[in-house]
Design a protein that fits this description.
Layout (H helix, E strand, L loop, with lengths): L4 E4 L17 E4 L12 E2 L16 E11 L8 E5 L11 E10 L7 E6 L2 E7 L8 E8 L4 H4 L5 E7 L11 E10 L3 H4 L2 H10 L22 E5 L10 E5 L4 E5 L5 E12 L12 H6 L13 E6 L2 E6 L28 E5 L4 H4 L5 E8 L2 E14 L7 E8 L4 E9 L2 E20 L2 E20 L4 E17 L5 E21 L4 E20 L3 E20 L2 E17 L2 E10 L2 E11 L7 H9 L3 E2 L2 E2 L11
Parallel strand pairs: 3-9
Antiparallel strand pairs: 1-2, 4-11, 5-10, 6-9, 6-11, 7-8, 7-10, 12-20, 13-20, 14-19, 15-18, 15-20, 16-17, 16-19, 21-23, 22-23, 23-24, 24-25, 25-26, 26-27, 27-28, 28-29, 29-30, 30-31, 32-33
């Protein structure tokens, strides 16, 4: 059996029966004696799409930025380090990779962490829970889209927040290092731009009406300016801490009058009483059964973006399970979906530029529908600037945002009860921007739908949770003649099913049995006249089953099996990885890859540049599915 470690049962045992109402939600697992001290630290995994291999002859350099041991850091400000763009690898960059490496040994809980550069978030992550012999893991994230920040003046500050508690009982110290790896563009790829453009024309992609302006390549490349929508001082982290549904956090920003495109990227993670928001019962169930838990307010959450107190976009957040969640044995050594690299959410604000490019400050606010304590949220405002004009003209066109349509059906009988929620919201915005590139109208149509079901049966000892959330976003860019010059269509789905059963044990113990399936599916189609056509599909799935014997704070025995299947495909190829783990041992780990050559080039040359978000033979890369884009 694995060595002793601390774990969290984050599924709220206090909701199952009165005898469990005061049972804590954090536990230790005295499973077996620890090693003798010379066992190697075990590597934990996050089976996602691997970052592309750099093209041959690509100039590159690695910049170590921060190394810090997060011991007792609860309530302390973030760790900070100076950052300057690498003189040896000047931009523009075809790919920039952030590496977040961590190691820990001893007893410790999982923690949330984030990396910011000058107040703009680059990564939201959570830690794995350690063993006595130690664990290690590395998160590698493509951060090319933050090039505007990374090439900022040489007095930048990189901050890492990780609040940890170390004492006689909780001994684990998280040793973290953060580095950035920069890749330039080989000369032979830069020179290939003109020939690739000719090939695109031959394929019928680059023959627009000469009288009709086309979208610039820069429209789909990293932004020219990024403004953080976050806490000003960052002394307790740059994230806003939202405590309830009426708690709206905001920042005033003034954007350049030359802005021709705007996208708000939102980072969000639930904690404390709302970490399992998708399984929370309504407050009436808690009151009727005199439960002490504060995990209530039912099982629907929606993050809302407001602009000058007007609705500008929303999304249902993907229910990330942290590494101590549901049954902590599920996540040894394969992390739950998104736990090491939480998704961010893009909200297209270009239709609102008519309100923003007046040289005055404007309020961008974030809130959580039905949220309770607490949510960590912040955002980055990505702006694209006209290189040939100091001012653009713009106006908001059509604006349609109906109220959230939500129905709730609750029934209770003592500790048994069923709680159904159906929610829907549709919105449509349009606005035009006249820049040196031409006059383009951006239309954004979004549909959010979610159904949640939480049921207690068997006198509250069985709990069943079902969540089905879907979001469709259609973005179209039209010319003055109403011709569609570019579009991005994204459909995201994330179903979750969970069942937990408690059984009486002996000598003051009880058994907790859990079954879980959850997945994330994102399909994206993007095209721009004369530039590219691209289709991407992502399917990330996990299924887990196991049981634990619990006494007081301790999980004294248990077993778990987890299967993970990751599939990604685009016009360049297909990647699949399937992992099966039982009781912390990886029994199988299979990878299947297939790639298509582009114009005779090797996949790891031309396509690596494209996957990095840079230019692909003179054309702009479409949005990737790594984040839940265009939401």
């Amino acid at each position: 059996m694995p060595p002793r470690r601390l774990v969290r049962l984050l599924f709220g045992l206090a909701l199952l029966a009165p005898v469990l109402a005061d049972v804590p939600d954090r536990y230790a697992t005295p499973r077996a004696r620890a090693g003798v001290g010379n066992a190697p630290a075990r590597e934990y995994l996050d089976p996602t799409y691997p970052l592309p291999r750099p093209p041959a002859a690509t100039p590159s350099c690695v910049v170590p930025v921060l190394s810090y041991s997060f011991g007792h850091t609860y309530g302390a400000p973030p760790a900070k380090a100076a950052y300057a763009p690498p003189a040896a690898c000047p931009g523009p960059w075809s790919l920039v990779v952030l590496s977040f490496s961590a190691a820990c040994a001893g007893d410790q809980y999982d923690r949330v962490a984030a990396v910011w550069l000058d107040g703009a978030e680059l990564l939201r992550t959570t830690t794995a829970e350690p063993t006595a012999d130690g664990i290690r893991w590395t998160v590698r994230k493509d951060v090319t889209r933050y090039s505007a920040l990374l090439r900022s003046p040489p007095d930048g500050v990189l901050s890492v927040m990780l609040e940890n508690v170390v004492n006689d009982q909780y001994t684990g110290v998280y040793n973290v290092s953060v580095s950035l790896e920069f890749f330039g563009t080989p000369a032979y790829l830069s020179d290939a731009g003109s020939s690739s453009s000719s090939a695109s024309a031959a394929a019928g992609l680059a023959d627009p009406d000469p009288a009709t302006p086309t979208l610039p390549e820069s429209y789909f490349q990293p932004a020219d300016l990024i403004l953080p929508i976050s806490e000003a001082t960052g002394e307790t982290g740059f994230w806003f801490r939202i405590q309830n549904s009426s708690d709206s956090r905001s920042k005033l920003v003034t954007i350049p009058s030359s802005t021709y495109r705007a996208v708000l990227e939102v980072f969000v993670s639930p904690h404390a009483n709302d970490e399992f928001w998708y399984s929370n019962p309504p407050d009436l169930y808690i009151r009727e059964n005199n439960l002490t838990t504060r995990r209530g307010n039912a099982a629907y959450r929606e993050v809302v973006v407001s602009l000058d107190r007007h609705f500008a976009g929303s999304f249902v957040p993907f229910p990330v399970i942290y590494t101590g969640g549901i049954n902590p044995l599920f996540w040894q050594p394969v992390a739950a979906l998104g736990a090491f690299d939480l998704p961010s959410y893009d909200v297209e604000l270009t239709p609102f530029l008519g309100l923003l490019v007046d040289g005055k400050p404007h309020e961008i606010a974030l809130s959580v529908v039905d949220g309770i304590a607490e949510w960590f949220v912040d955002a980055n405002l990505h702006l694209w600037l006209d290189p040939s004009s100091s001012d653009v003209s713009a106006a908001l066109g059509r604006y349609r945002t109906p109220r959230l349509s939500i129905t709730r059906r609750y029934s209770t009988r003592l500790l048994d009860g069923s709680f159904n929620i159906r929610a829907k919201r549709k919105s449509f915005f349009s606005g035009w921007v006249n820049s040196s590139f031409g006059n383009f109208t951006t239309e954004v149509e979004t549909k959010v739908e979610a159904t949640s079901f939480v049921e207690f049966s068997n006198q509250g000892k069985t709990k069943t949770v079902r969540l089905q959330a879907e979001q469709e976003t259609k973005i179209r860019i039209r010319s003055e003649t109403r011709k569609v010059m570019g579009k991005v269509e994204t459909e995201a789905k994330f179903p979750l099913w969970l069942q937990t059963v408690t059984e009486d044990g002996e000598n003051g113990t009880y058994v907790l049995r859990s079954n879980l399936t959850h997945s994330l599916s994102v399909e994206t189609e993007a095209e721009a006249a004369g530039l590219f056509e691209r289709e991407e599909k992502l399917a990330d799935e996990q299924a887990a089953a196991g049981w634990m014997l619990v006494r007081d704070h301790d999980v004294v025995n248990g077993t778990a099996a987890t299967s993970s299947a990751y599939r990604y495909s685009d016009d360049a190829g297909r990647y699949e990885r399937a992992i099966y783990a039982v009781d912390g041992a990886v029994l199988s780990d299979n990878v299947t890859e297939s790639y298509r050559a582009v114009d005779g080039a090797l996949p790891d040359a031309r396509d690596a540049c494209c996957r990095g978000g840079g230019r692909c033979g003179g054309t702009a890369a479409a949005a990737k599915c790594s984040d839940i884009a265009a939401m």
